[in-house]
Amino acid sequence: MRLEKDNFKDFLEYCLTELLNIVSKDIYLVGGLVRDKLLNVDSLDYDFVVSKDAFLISKELAYKTGGALVVLDDVRDISRVVWNKERNNFDLNFDIAKIVGYSIEEDLSLRDLTINSIAIRFDTLSIKKLIDGKYNISEKDIFDPCNGYQDLKNGIIKTNAIDNFISDPLRLIRAFRFSAKYNFKIEKNTSEYINQLGKLIVNPAKERVLKELFDILSINNSSKFLEQMYKSDILYYLFQDFNNLNKSLLIKSIDCICKYELITKQIDDYFPYNEKIDKYLSENLIYNHSRKSLLKIVLLLANFKDYSITMIEFLSKIEKLVKLYTFSSVEQNFILKNICYYHQIENVLNIEINRTNLFLLFKERKKEVISSLILHFIQTKDLKEQKIIIEIYKLFIEDELLSNPPSIINGQELMKELNIPAGKIIGNLLNIIQKGQAEKIIKNKPEAISYAKDYLKSIYTPQ
């Protein structure tokens, strides 16, 4: 069933109304959407709790609205209804779960933080307030046995009970994530619980930890919150098994991330053509993981290397670590390459800046020239060295013959002109022609053919 609705609000109202028609009573909106609405922040985080039959309700809602049903946890009776642009014109998710415990009060008290323990009774009035921009969710609309609204107003991150951290230790890092997201302060007792239970953060699945860590790293001043995680030992426990990690290396990592955030925040003070850097860093390699956030992972991990381990051994350990944390293959490749570049700063600072050397550098690093130069810039405080890095960056941006020589001849044409078969020699010739273009020796196709012929003569040895 494809729904032809005029706009997203119409579609949302349709789905909400259908859900209310199915359940009619004992259903609450909880969690993120309630929190964000009270903060006047846009949200599409629709979580519902019902007294029973969450799966059957989700199944009927999916059937009536053309959504897809996903079972998230059949033991705890949690399901999701998913609508997407391809089938329904709009992307939207509803999570529907059975109330935990015997009442909504008990369910809310068992949640991670007080600011996430607020509910709204779901009815026709709440639908109107969710849809119509003239109305706001306010204190009189909410059900708040844990006083979460007061903590929202005061900017406080607070848990309902220490047992809520013990039951799901991922909540230890979630406290920092929400602190970072809203720039809220973690309450004293909650902070003490985190310090006390920090070792438990190794228990949750690594993909769940990675998601929380990425949400923190996506914040522009994440170094501030990483420092708090360091002080509570959460950051150490996350990576303690890596080569008997020395805590001082974590401090170095956080310092580098802090410098990186300063540079990217004021990029026009450091690099010309900064709009190209902004575009490059903002691009997502996969999911919602941008280069900007991934480079913070690079800076975090690259500084774990100490004198006791060779570079080959170090990269092998990093590879195991990023696989353990379930990074995608694309992300793994990006992280490993950039960690290599991070530790090759001398290769850049000590090269003679000429067309041949720059062409080879740019060809080796390909798309990651910008990221590697930023990593080098962060490492050095020497103004002369910083000028070298900026000079190389300018040439990469300004001189396309160096950074991306245009194709003036292809392999098929070379085989025909030189009367040679396909093979490695064709690839080598194309690379040599590109190098000649970068050196401004070759300007057109005839010159490329002549250059290739001369090269073949130079390597030909009569039998």
Structural features, described:
With 463 residues, this protein is α+β, with helices and mostly antiparallel strands. It folds into 4 domains: 1-154, Beta Polymerase, domain 2 (2-Layer Sandwich); 162-240, Hydrophobic Seed Protein, CATH 1.10.110; 265-395, no CATH class; 411-459, no CATH class. The chain contains 26 helices and 11 strands. The protein has helices at residues 8-23, 32-38, 54-65, 85-88, 104-109, 124-131, 148-154, 162-167, 170-182, 188-197, 206-217, 222-231, 234-239, 247-265, 274-282, 291-302, 311-324, 329-342, 345-349, 355-365, 369-379, 383-398, 400-403, 411-418, 424-438, 445-459, and strands at 27-30, 46-50, 68-73, 78-83, 92-98, 119-121, 142-143, 156-157, 185-186, 284-286, 289-290. Strands 3-4-5-2-1-6-7 form a 7-stranded mixed β-sheet. Strands 8-9 form a two-stranded parallel ribbon. Strand 10 (284-286) and strand 11 form a beta hairpin. Helix 1 (8-23) packs antiparallel against helix 6 and helix 9 packs antiparallel against helix 12. It is elongated. The termini are far apart. The model is unreliable at 1-5 (pLDDT under 50).
